[in-house]
Structures are given as C-alpha cells and as structure tokens.
C-alpha cells in the first residue's frame, strides 16, 4: 500500500508517481462531454465502462482499449489530457478526490453499487490474484480489513455516504445497481442511454447488453492485450472477469462472518437509502 496523507492506494507504478497522479487529479481539466464511471473497486466498473463506451460510439463492439487506460488514478494526467472526446473516464476514488472541474462543469457521472458482501468476496480474490497486493491470507482475515477500511481506497461506507449525499443534490449522477444490471440489463442500458442523451434503437440496446454480458466480455476482452499495464502482476490464471455473479457471498461467508459483517455494517446500511436494499 502507498499511504498518501492517510489514503491507501495500490498501483503498478512507483510510489512517487502514484503520489504525483493522486495530487494532480483534483486539478484535471475536464470537458463538458466527459463521462465519469465511478464505483468502489469490484462493483462492476469494467462492465459499466464498456456499456457507456458502446453507447457513446453507437456500436455494440467491444472497445479495443482498456478501461485502465482511462482510469484517473492509474494514468498520468498528460495521458488523460490527450484522450480524444468524448472521454469515458473512471475511478474508484472518493468523490471529494475527483477532478473539481467535473463537478463545476456538471459532467455526467455514472455511479454503480453492488452488495458490499459480494464486493468483499470479489476484492478478496482480486487481492490474492494480483501480486502487487502481496496478499496470501484467508477470507476470515481479509474481511476485517475490508470492514475496517484498511484496504486501498479506505472506508467503503464513507465512500458510499459521500455519493449518497451527492445523488440527493445533483441530477447529473446516474445510479445503477450491479444486481439490476445483471437481472435486467436491457432496461438498465436503456435508462443509461436516456441519461447520457444518446438516441439509439432497441436493436442497439439489445446488442450492447448481449456484448457486455459476462460470458461475452470475458472471452472478448481477454483477447486484447488490454491489461498491458496490469498483466505482469497477475498471478496464475487471475482474470478481471472472474465469476460475475450475484449473492456469491452466501457461499463464502460463515455464520460467524455474517454476524461480524452485520455488527460492523448493518445499522449504517439501514440508515443509507442506497444500501438499505441489501439489509
Ligand atoms: P467477481 O469477482 O465477483 O466475478 P470492477 O470492474 O469494478 O473491478 O468489478 C469486477 C467485478 O465485476 C468482478 O466480480 C467481475 O467478474 C465482474 N464483472 C466484470 N464484467 C462483468 C459483466 N460483464 N457482467 C457481470 N459481472 C462482471
């Protein structure tokens, strides 16, 4: 972990570069047509990034570019500056750490939420599968790190609370639940198109939903050398497209872990309009 003023980051880059990127992000120059895809790590960022990119290009074709090349905390500001419009940028950073101009210029944001228990399971495999995390522990040891906000991007509930407040105040943020995208992708893609102001046919919406289904994306995306930046750090057969399921936590959490989760998260989730559906 690179700790920057109390904020935990993990990167395939040198710590001084990570620091430089992190400090530059708030000053990033934004354009009116920039779209920001934001979610906590492992909540469906790759999936949504692909859908938004397809909607903006008007083609149901897998983008031969990597999401990570459009990720604020992964790329140097100079590189982000050179991306042609319309840019589909993405980040797992807390809202207060994102480019200030994005909020001032009322750029569009797509925010994705996923059951935090599934996020924890997915993140566990992520940390074990990428050598940078140097993590070899068991899930029972990992869960406290997630719940106590000791992993990269710090505290999950604080992260969601910040977005919840912004969603109440701003109309340029569109909320998507991973679970809804999974069960009713076509409707969610249609709503997303409307939010983005993209006119498209029912055929295109159907084709995008299909092309972005887990099975299709896994096969297609893994064909491209899209992970050129992160690939060297992948252990064994690690893939960013692992299972793509909902409710996997039920097969992972023990009764004791579930009780522990509830003791740390449940009350706060009940008090959150966004997270209440998971209680
Ligand atoms: P799992 O580890 O549970 O499989 P992110 O992109 O924010 O890092 O999130 C990664 C999670 O989203 C992984 O979850 C990954 O498999 C899942 N995912 C990626 N593409 C998906 C798709 N097209 N449909 C459903 N889930 C997808």
Automatic annotation (TrEMBL):
Domain Sulfotransferase: 33-272
Molecular function via GO: sulfotransferase activity
Transmembrane segments: none
Keyword Transferase: yes
InterPro entries (alphabetical): P-loop_NTPase (IPR027417), Sulfotransferase_dom (IPR000863)
Keyword entries, A-Z: Transferase
Keyword Nucleus attached: no
Protein family per UniProt: Belongs to the sulfotransferase 1 family.
Name recorded for this polypeptide: Sulfotransferase domain-containing protein
Gene source species: Potamilus streckersoni
Organism lineage: Eukaryota, Metazoa, Spiralia, Lophotrochozoa, Mollusca
